Amino acid sequence: MMMTKEEFQSYLEKYAQQIEVIRQSAHTLHQNVNQTYGENLPYGYHLDMVAEGVAEYGHLVCDSENDVLPLFFGAFYHDAIEDARQTYHDVLNAAREFMTEEQAVMAAEIVYALTNDKGRTRAERAGEKYYQGIRETPYAPFVKLCDRLANVTYSCSEEGGGDLRMKGVYKDEMHHFLMGINPHSQDCRFQVPREVIEALAEILIDDLEREEISRQWSEY
Fold it and tell me: 65-88: buried (b, 16+ CB within 10 Å) or exposed (e) per residue?
């Protein structure tokens, strides 16, 4: 059973120091491979945006106190294998520095599930096998949704150049994307919160389209 927002916020305060250490560790990891975000931002800018989504909406999916650190580790490390030259075991060993073995495995599995497959195109890198892995991994659908919200927010912002091409790509992908990550599970750890979908809709949908597309997206 998911917790209240107040309970979740109390855990954020309780584990604030550990979360900050995880954040700094992830930032350093991406800095060491000279990865940037957008034109010239440090990649940590994106990682922080994903973690902000977890902080804002995490109470809607979080099942217990023990899952808080794995959730944030997943947010900060979600691109570690794909972009920062880490292996699954590298990520697992890193997680072990911050949490129990059970928590570390949960955290590493989130990262592994969110790692794109090998492929020449965007569609090949995020095929059915990729989405199946997300659907079968606790909290991976939610962290992926926060990742998408971060990318959409930045791409459509003035700072991100108001990229209309990517806005169109993200909007066109939304039905397939939501179908891919949403297992229609009654287990809160696998769910995609309506509130996050609505936040995406606010950015991607024009007023004339809102009623029809919002109705379609509400099915998730």
Answer: eebbbbbbbbbbbbbbbeebebee
Torsion, Cα 98 103 105 110, to 10 degrees, reads: -90
Tokens of 208: 């004339």
**Do 163 and 155 contact (CB within 8 A), yes or no?**
yes
* Full DSSP string of 134-189: HHTSTTHHHHHHHHHHHHHHHHTSTTTT--HHHHHHHHHHHHHHHHHH----SSGG
Residues 106, 214: Cα–Cα separation, whole Å: 33
What is the pLDDT, as a whole number, of residue 110?
A: 98
Cβ–Cβ < 8 Å for 141, 135:
yes
Residue 24 CA to residue 51 CA, distance in Å, equals 12
What pLDDT, on the 0 to 100 scale, is given for residue 214? 57
pLDDT on residue 127: 81
Chunk the chain into consecutive blocks of 10 residues (it has 220) and report each block's average pLDDT, rounded to whole numbers.
90 98 98 92 97 98 97 98 95 98 98 84 79 96 97 85 78 90 90 92 73 61
Distance set, CA 182 to CA 67, 109, 177 (Å):
20, 17, 8
- What type of residue is 51? A
Q: Which residues contact 70 (CB under 8 A, 6 or more apart)?
A: 95, 99, 103, 104, 106, 107, 110, 139
123 backbone dihedrals φ, ψ, rounded to 5°: -65, -40
Q: How much is the pLDDT for 164?
A: 73
* Phi, psi for 204 (deg, rounded to 5): -95, -25
Residue 213's pLDDT is: 61
